[in-house]
Design a protein that fits this description.
Low-confidence stretches: none
Mean pLDDT: 91
CATH architecture: 3-Layer(aba) Sandwich
Order of helices and strands: EHEHEHEHEEH
Shape: globular
Largest sheet: 4 strands, parallel
Number of domains: 1
Number of strands: 6
Radius of gyration: 19 Å
CATH class: Alpha Beta
Strand order of the largest sheet: 2-1-3-4
Bound molecules: 5-nitro-6-ribityl-amino-2,4(1H,3H)-pyrimidinedione
Structural class: alpha/beta
Length: 177
C-alpha cells in the first residue's frame, strides 16, 4: 500500500540531502597504518569541502589505532557539537588473530556509540586481507572509502535533522482524565 495512484504516493518520504549548511562534523582517524588512513582522511575532507563545509565546521581527531576509535567518537558525540562523525581506520589481516579482535571491536564499538548517542557515525574503517586491498580502497581501484564515509555522514546528518524537524511536537492541550 502507500500509493494512491501510480504517480501520486500517499506516504511521506524523508531522505537526507548532500549539503552541509549549518552542520558540524568530526572525523576520527587512527594513526595505525597511517600510509592508508591519511589517504582516507584526505578523501573524507575532499567530500566535506565539496559538499560545501567550512573548515571551521570540521574537527579532525587522531587516535592510536582502530580499537580506540569508538571511545573517541562517543565522547565527541556527547559534546553535542557534531551532527555526524566520520570514523576512519585500517585493519589489515596479519598472521595473528589480532585482526579479528580489532576489527570486531571497532565495528561493534562505532555502531554502539552511534546508537547510544543518536549521533550518526559512518564506518570508514577498512578491514582487509592485505596492503594491496587497502590501497585499492584508499583512492585507487575501488575509490576512496573515506570519501564515501563522509558523504554518508553528510546524508545522515541531514536526514536526522529533517526527522527532528518533521516530527511535530505533541499538542500542549491538557487531556481530561
Ligand atoms: N590497529 C589498527 O588500526 N589496524 C591494525 O591493523 C592493527 N593491528 O593489526 O594490530 C591495529 N592495532 C592497534 C590497536 O588498534 C590498538 O591501537 C592497540 O591495541 C592499543 O589499544
Amino acid at each position: 500500500m502507500g500509493q494512491k495512484g501510480q504517480d501520486q504516493p500517499r506516504y511521506r518520504e524523508l531522505q537526507g540531502e548532500l549539503t552541509v549548511a549549518g552542520l558540524h562534523f568530526a572525523v576520527v582517524v587512527s594513526r595505525f597504518n597511517a600510509f592508508i588512513t591519511e589517504r582516507l582522511l584526505q578523501g573524507a575532507l575532499d567530500a566535506l569541502r565539496r559538499a560545501g563545509a567550512d573548515e571551521e565546521a570540521i574537527t579532525v581527531v587522531r587516535v592510536p589505532g582502530a580499537f580506540e576509535i569508538p571511545v573517541a567518537a562517543k565522547h565527541l558525540a556527547q559534546t553535542g557539537r557534531y551532527n555526524a562523525i566520520v570514523c576512519l581506520g585500517t585493519v589489515i589481516r596479519g598472521e595473528t588473530p589480532h585482526f579479528e579482535y580489532i576489527s570486531a571491536e571497532a565495528s561493534k564499538g562505532v555502531a554502539a556509540a552511534a546508537f547510544e548517542s543518536g549521533v550518526p557515525m559512518s564506518f570508514g574503517i577498512l578491514t582487509v586481507e592485505n596492503l594491496e586491498q587497502a590501497v585499492d580502497r584508499a583512492g585507487l581501484k575501488s575509490g576512496n572509502k573515506g570519501f564515501e564515509a563522509a558523504m554518508s555522514a553528510v546524508e545522515m546528518a541531514n536526514l536526522i535533522r529533517k526527522i527532528k524537524e518533521s516530527s511535530a511536537p505533541p499538542s500542549r492541550k491538557r487531556r481530561r482524565s
